[in-house]
């Protein structure tokens, strides 16, 4: 490309998309790069999809502050754009005397983080709220504002908003080297070089690799695989809120959570790997999760597992988010962003913009910005097209169901091809519509959905 962008953001996951959107609210030309063929196709697509209050973050850290701010910012953005969110609340369950003794400390930590609505409850209240919970719970800590959200729609909304604001989206651009030309940086990438005066590194699992291309050696990303089991919608009445374990040094542990799609999740595992592409599931992982599930909620294991998946989290040897600006190289690192990055994304973008401004990037707000996009609803708690008689009367395509497990219509599939960021693959289409995500996993609808995709190419 002959264009020299004011800013190039590497990584079109949730955090990178939020940063590109924020910067595009100013008089800047912005490029958003990703190594894959779609936005949100890395870490962002495979997590537990929880909108965190930040009650259990380490007080005083950057992560704590940005998660707390991000919770409110993303909640507001979800209302504007139609990202499905359900404020289910959560119950952190203590199963041992040691975990029970830890509850007052967790409540105090929540207070230090500015969250004041937790409450310690006894076993009677635990089982009143969760009658299907396994035997032996000694008490719990309520967190009434923990919520579930659609991570796919969040990523797509932020990226679409960015594109509508004028961001140039460059997919299939894996950055392999960088060259400093003094007034700009050349990102040597598959699919073509990109020139930019400033670079923001939000590359997730590859953030440490890109950081070294800019001459730094300050952290290492370890891919941490999290495997999850997805239970059928018939299990949802058993789980009306997020069931959390008492966290340990390894993370938040195995949880049970409803999803906005009407399913129930059990997971994740936490296995450190070397291969940054290994998102395969394992027999060992499933055995571990089933063992945990037998203790947490044995009735859940009587329900059908409709899907399994694994995601890679960007675990880091740095104890906090690592967000720093290098004014000399006109470069900002956004590294060490753990699973809380979903919640913190918009706050991270605000923080990055402030750091870049202080380091010399001129930020002049644009006078008029397009309205945020209104996203298709994928959530079961809200009206879907197949349920909307007026919409079907106006356009019969919304009454033609092509995926019967998930009730996805031909109109919804068609709309994805007309969107600012259309799907390039079946997986991309799945994340935009829920097609092939149900009990049959595309066995019945896969051929027709694939035909619709191929007809649009």
Write the layout of secondary structure elements.
Blueprint: E1 4-10, H1 14-23, E2 30-33, E3 50-51, H2 62-81, E4 85-86, E5 90-94, H3 97-112, E6 119-121, H4 123-129, E7 139-143, E8 147-149, H5 151-164, E9 168-170, E10 175-180, E11 185-189, E12 194-201, H6 207-213, E13 221-231, E14 242-245, E15 255-258, E16 264-267, E17 271-272, H7 283-296, E18 305-316, E19 322-326, E20 331-335, H8 341-358, H9 389-394, E21 401-403, E22 408-409, H10 410-417, H11 426-433, H12 446-456
Parallel strand pairs: 1-2, 1-12, 2-9, 5-14, 12-20
Antiparallel strand pairs: 3-8, 4-8, 5-7, 6-7, 10-11, 11-12, 13-16, 13-17, 13-18, 15-16, 19-20, 21-22
Helix pairs in contact: 1-5, 1-8, 2-8
Can you describe what's shown?
- This protein has 457 residues and is an alpha+beta fold.
- It has three domains: 1-86 and 148-220 and 317-377, FAD/NAD(P)-binding domain (3-Layer(bba) Sandwich); 87-147 and 222-316, D-Amino Acid Oxidase, Chain A, domain 2 (2-Layer Sandwich), CATH 3.30.9; 385-456, no CATH class.
- 30% of the residues lie in helices and 23% in strands.
- The chain is built from twelve helices and 22 strands.
- Strands 1, 2, 9, 10, 11, 12, 19 and 20 form an eight-stranded mixed β-sheet that branches.
- A hairpin with a 4-residue loop joins strand 19 (322-326) and strand 20 (331-335).
- The longest helix has 20 residues, at 62-81.
- It starts with a strand and ends with a helix.
- The model has no long low-confidence stretch (mean pLDDT 96).
- Pfam families: DAO (PF01266), Fer2_BFD (PF04324).
- Residues 6-354 form the FAD dependent oxidoreductase domain.
- It comes from Streptosporangium amethystogenes subsp. fukuiense.
- InterPro entries: BFD-like_2Fe2S-bd_dom, BFD-like_2Fe2S-bd_dom_sf, FAD-dep_OxRdtase, FAD/NAD-bd_sf, G3P_Oxidase/Oxidoreductase.
């Amino acid at each position: 490309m002959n264009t020299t962008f004011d800013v190039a953001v590497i990584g079109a996951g949730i955090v990178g998309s939020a940063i590109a959107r924020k910067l595009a609210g100013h008089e800047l030309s912005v490029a958003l790069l990703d190594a894959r063929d779609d936005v949100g196709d890395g870490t962002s697509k495979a997590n537990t999809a929880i909108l965190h209050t930040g009650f259990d973050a380490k007080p005083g850290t950057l992560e704590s502050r940005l998660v707390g701010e991000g919770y409110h910012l993303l909640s507001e953005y979800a209302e504007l754009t139609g990202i499905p969110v359900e404020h289910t609340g959560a119950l952190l369950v203590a199963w041992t005397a040691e975990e029970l003794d830890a509850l007052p400390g967790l409540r105090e930590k929540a207070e230090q983080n500015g969250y004041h609505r937790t409450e310690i409850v006894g076993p009677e209240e635990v089982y009143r709220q969760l009658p299907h919970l396994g035997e032996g719970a000694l008490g719990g800590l309520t967190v009434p504002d923990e919520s579930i959200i659609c991570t796919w729609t969040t990523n797509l909304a932020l990226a679409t908003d960015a594109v509508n604001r004028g961001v140039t989206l460059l997919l299939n651009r894996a950055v392999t080297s960088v060259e400093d030309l003094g007034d700009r940086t050349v990102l040597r990438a598959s699919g073509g070089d990109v020139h930019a005066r400033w670079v923001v590194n939000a590359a997730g699992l590859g953030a440490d690799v890109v950081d070294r291309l800019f001459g730094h050696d300050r952290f290492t990303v370890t891919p941490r695989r999290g495997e999850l089991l997805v239970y059928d919608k018939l299990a949802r009445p058993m789980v009306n809120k997020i069931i959390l374990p008492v966290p340990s040094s390894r993370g938040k542990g195995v949880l049970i959570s409803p999803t906005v799609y009407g399913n129930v999740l059990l997971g994740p595992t936490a296995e450190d790997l070397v291969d940054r592409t290994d998102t395969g599931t394992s027999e060992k992982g499933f055995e571990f999760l089933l063992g945990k599930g037998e203790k947490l909620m044995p009735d859940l294991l009587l329900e059908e597992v409709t899907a399994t998946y694994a995601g890679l989290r960007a675990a880091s040897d740095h104890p906090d988010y690592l967000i720093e600006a290098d004014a000399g190289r006109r470069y900002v690192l956004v590294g060490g962003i753990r699973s809380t990055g979903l919640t913190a994304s918009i706050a991270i973008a605000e923080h990055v913009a402030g750091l870049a401004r202080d380091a010399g990037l001129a930020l002049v707000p644009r006078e008029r910005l397009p309205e945020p996009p209104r996203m298709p609803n994928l959530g079961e708690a809200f009206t879907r097209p197949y349920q909307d008689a007026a919409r079907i009367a106006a356009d019969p395509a919304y009454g033609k169901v092509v995926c019967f497990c998930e009730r996805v219509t031909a109109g919804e599939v068609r709309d994805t091809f007309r969107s600012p960021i259309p799907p390039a693959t079946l997986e991309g289409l799945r994340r935009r519509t829920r097609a092939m995500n149900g009990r049959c996993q595309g066995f019945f609808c896969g051929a027709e959905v694939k035909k619709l995709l191929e007809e649009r190419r």
